[in-house]
Structures are given as structure tokens and as C-alpha cells.
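DATA SHEET
Item: assembly model
Revision: 1
Owner: S.N.
Input lines:
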Amino acid sequence: MKEISIKKGDILQRKGDLNSKIYNVKTGLLRSYTIDEQGKEHIYMFAPEDWIMSDNTLDNEPCDLFIDALEDSELEMRNKDFTDADVNTDKILRRMGVLQKRVIMLMSSSAIERYDHFVERYPQIVQRVPQKMIASYLGITPEALSRVKKERFRK
Amino acid sequence: MKEISIKKGDILQRKGDLNSKIYNVKTGLLRSYTIDEQGKEHIYMFAPEDWIMSDNTLDNEPCDLFIDALEDSELEMRNKDFTDADVNTDKILRRMGVLQKRVIMLMSSSAIERYDHFVERYPQIVQRVPQKMIASYLGITPEALSRVKKERFRK
DNA sequence: TAGGATTCTTAACCTATGTCAATGCGCACA
DNA sequence: TGTGCGCATTGACATAGGTTAAGAATCCTA
């Protein structure tokens, strides 16, 4: 285990890397994202204080995700061994719960429903990142998010 | 831990239940799915031999998923305590890897790309379930899957 | 082996969201 | 105190996938 401090914009991991670590966020805000063949960015997860951030690419293949800092951050970095007591089962379970909800919402909810759910669940993050990143997390374009927010207002 | 045998069609868990268990599939095939407000079914996961099946709804809330058997199956059923040696970290990591890939593909790939990926990754499952269930897993309608398969063929 | 149920395909039409381009705003910095 | 840059908004248009309905194929099961 190693404690590290990083600045806003610093990159911790790049898509294709092999030495994937697990980060425990003490202060600040991390983001993981991928870039597809068309060069488009898709945010996979935000990790504010008290969350863990890691890439879980299967089979020790080159990882899929970039990880960078959206704010100056202090982190604990360790190798991915799950038995480590500090990466406790509560955080793993919470992570799986978030992913389950996310998959279900991507499959069954409209853009505006996903947005409302996000704002309700993560009001702090909404304050801390530009709206285009929230759109990216929700799986839509910034233009679409702008539009659906406006449309809802008309009702 | 308890060993149970169930028949095709048997339901192990319903949306809204509280006593969520974790199942280790020894033989057979399970499926988890949700039903949205419009009554539409969305498959969350398949679990063939050697996979685990569980609901990871957050905060001990009523669960989101139905779980049923697509084939006669033999299972090990246990409570959700992660420290149990038999629900090992390999399976947890594999599960998180699958979810990560799933989220990324839902956000960045077209229907036909998701289908091709599924067929490549799970050829056995393709043989064992109707195509409309694969469509449901991919987040599209059976009609759309039928169409995109045909369209690809035209090229 | 027939008959009903389920699944798959196809077609016409619809809608949510993407794409592209233009504009304006707000903020950091010279 | 301007000015440049990233971000948000808006509009016109494009498109992937949804909806509905019908028919064809397949499969259970009596």
C-alpha cells in the first residue's frame, strides 16, 4: 500500500496498460472512462471520497479504462488483491449494486429518467463536474441532455 | 449452505423480495431479469454452470431482480456473506469484469456489435436460450435483433 | 401427428437521441 | 480590462432502434 497525491488532470492509468491498481480515494475526485473506435469518450465511473476506483478488465488483459483526476486528490494505491482488509466487502458490494442499477437503467430508462436518478443519488457530484461529463456517464450527448432537461420543464 | 434442485421455470426470487440469497450453479442455467413500469422484461444476467447468481440491490432494499431457471438446475444456496470461501474472489472479479464490459458496450456499441460480442463470448448460451432472450440481454427488441442480423448479411 | 403456443421474421411507420453548425456565456489569465 | 477557450444551448436534419401488426416457422404436448 502506498499513499499518493495527485493534481487535477493527472492520469493514473491509460487504456491498454497492464499494471492495473486499485485506488482508494481519501480526498478529491477520480474518473474512469474509455475512448471508443470513433474517438468518443464514455465515462464509466466517478469516485469521490470514500470510494474505490479500479479497472476490472477480464483475464489480465490490457485494461479498457483511462483513470484521471477531476480534482486534486489524495489516494491509497494498492495491488488488486481482494483479501486486503482495507478494500472491504462493503465497498465491493456497493460497487456491484451501483453497477447493477446502472445496467438496468441503461436498458430500461429514458435519458431524462437516468438523469433524474443520477441527480438524486449523487447531488454532490453534480456540483463538481461539468454537465457534459454527466451526459457522458449517462450514455448520451451533452446536446441531448440539454434538450431533455428543457423539454421536461415544458410540462 | 444448502443444495437444491429446481425445474425449468421455477422462480427463486421475485422483485421486491427481501431475503436475497446467492446461488452457485452446479448444473443448468439461471436467469435474472427485471420488469419495468411498462411491463417490459430486461434480462440482467445469465448464469450457467460454474457461475454465481445474485441480486446486488443496494442498502438491503427490496431487490430489483427476478431469478428463475431456464433449465432444470442444481444449485448451492447460501446467504450473502462474501467471506465464504466457496464464493471466491475469482468469481467476484469475473462478475465485475463482465459488468464493466457490459456497461461500456451498452454506452458505446451498436446493437449488432453487442450481439457479435455476445456470440463470441458465450457461444454455449446462444445455443440454449431463445433469441428474444438474447435481445433482451442486449437491451434491444427481438424485432431489432432480427433486423440487424439481416442487415449485416447484406454487406 | 395434429393443433395450439411460442418464436422468428418482415414491413410500415414513429420517436428518442445523435450529428453538425452556429451562437452566446462565463471565467481564467495576459 | 480585454480576449480566448471551454462549456451550454439551440435548431435543422439524420438515423438507430422501438412499435405494431401480420404471417411463417418451430416446438411442445395431447
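QC remark: Residues 110-111, 140-141, 143-144, 147-148 of chain B lie near DNA strand D (CB under 10 Å from a C1').
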